[in-house]
Specification:
There is one protein chain. By secondary structure, the protein is α+β, with helices and mostly antiparallel strands. It has 3 domains: about 210 residues, no CATH class; about 80 residues, no CATH class; about 55 residues, no CATH class. The chain has 12 helices and 13 strands. The strands form 5 sheets. A 3-stranded antiparallel β-sheet has the order 2-1-5. It has a 3-stranded antiparallel β-sheet with strand order 7-6-8. A 3-stranded antiparallel β-sheet has the order 11-10-12, with no helix packed on it. A hairpin with a 5-residue loop joins strand 1 and strand 2. The radius of gyration is 26 Å and the shape is elongated. It starts with a helix and ends in a 5-residue tail after the last strand.
């Protein structure tokens, strides 16, 4: 039993504690309403948009869509007013303009790439040609792992994917946390940004988005080596990455980058991984033996794929896990989950092996 003197000494702490508990309960309820709205109102509209896109497209993730400045305030209003359904068709009206929102989102990402180009010695103080991001000679690299990357595959590079909604309370002490919980109610009918951050983290804990930071750089060496390949094959400098991939040149590597193993043969993108700068690029490659279509002959052995979930950008690469269940966790129906699994960006697992036809070895 607490005596009067003890109560007076601890009253303020108890009031803070009880207020915090009340706000935690309210926050939990808001989070549940928020998640229900996302599942019932956003996921169906978002799914239709994503599945209408061509293969290898990289649309915004579900959290990125939810956090768009055109959509988040509407969700927040529904959460506060506890409106369970979109009776006025507000979300339908918003998604009628969704392609414009995505265009803005995509232009912001591409501007990050353009800034990397402008910092390079190749394009410094020059006008960057329109459509340059799709050129085969536009090669980027990752400072963290050293991988060579091209557009648009760099948008799914593992080193560039980070949590969309990191835990805002991760570095806060427990005592400070209780005090903050007592200060996060809705103010004036509008959810505070801190409250939105809390809810978004609770709902999208594992979701990731493209945030390359300083790890993304333009590869001058990759550019110059690719130009040599294009000239060698008699292709235009404006040849796209996709066109060069379809041609699939198999090269004998002769430049200084391969001085320890000159004459080794490999594909274009594989060769770029070893290419460094600061030397003459002329004569770097010769075309290796290929069939009449310009392709290596052989077969893929032991191919297994991993797929990238477009909703959260987590790779699904464990054969023991049910990929369909993963999509259902996002609120997709059985049919929607099957559709997403078929549409998702897929890559060969690292242990897939290319076996060269012995006749061409």
């Amino acid at each position: 039993m607490v005596v009067h003197s003890e109560w007076e000494e601890t009253k303020i702490d108890w009031l803070i504690f009880m207020e915090a508990i009340r706000n935690i309960t309210e926050r939990s309820a808001r989070g549940q309403r928020f998640e229900a709205l996302v599942r019932t109102q956003i996921v169906p509209l978002y799914s239709r948009y994503v599945l209408s896109q061509p293969p290898k497209a990289v649309p915004p993730t579900l959290p990125e869509v939810v956090l768009m400045e055109e959509i988040l305030p509407i969700l927040g209003n529904h959460v506060l007013t506890q409106v369970p359904q979109d009776s006025g068709g507000i979300f339908d009206n918003v998604f009628a303009q969704f392609s414009e929102f995505v265009a803005k989102w995509n232009s912001e990402r591409e501007e990050v790439l353009m800034q990397a180009l402008r910092k390079s010695t190749v394009y410094a103080c020059k006008d960057v040609p329109e459509g340059v991001l799709s050129y085969a000679s536009t090669v980027f690299s990752c400072r963290k792992c050293g991988d060579v990357l091209t557009y648009p595959t760099l948008f799914v590079h593992e080193c560039f994917l980070r949590l969309t909604c990191p835990n805002p309370a991760g570095l806060i002490s427990k005592k400070t946390r209780w005090k903050q919980e007592a200060e996060l109610p809705a103010l004036g009918g509008v959810l505070a940004q801190e409250a939105f951050d809390e809810i978004a983290h609770d709902v999208f804990q594992d979701a990731r988005s493209w945030q390359p930071g300083s790890n993304l750089v333009f590869s001058d060496a990759g550019y110059h080596h690719t130009v040599v390949v294009l000239d060698l094959l008699g292709l235009e400098r404006t040849t796209t990455t996709e066109e060069l991939r379809q041609f699939d040149p198999y090269l004998e590597c002769r430049c200084e980058c391969f001085k320890r193993s000159k004459g080794v043969t490999m594909g274009w993108m594989e060769a770029l991984k070893y290419c460094k700068g600061s030397h003459s690029y002329e004569g770097s490659f010769a075309v290796a033996v290929a069939d009449k279509r310009g392709r290596r002959t052989g077969t893929w052995q032991q191919i297994q794929y991993k797929s990238l979930c477009p909703l959260c950008q987590q790779w699904q690469d464990d054969p023991r896990e049910d990929v369909i269940w993963h999509y259902k966790e996002h609120g997709c129906s059985e049919a929607g989950a099957q559709a997403f699994d078929s549409w998702a960006w897929k890559e060969e697992m690292d242990f897939a092996e290319w076996i060269i036809d012995p006749a061409f070895e």
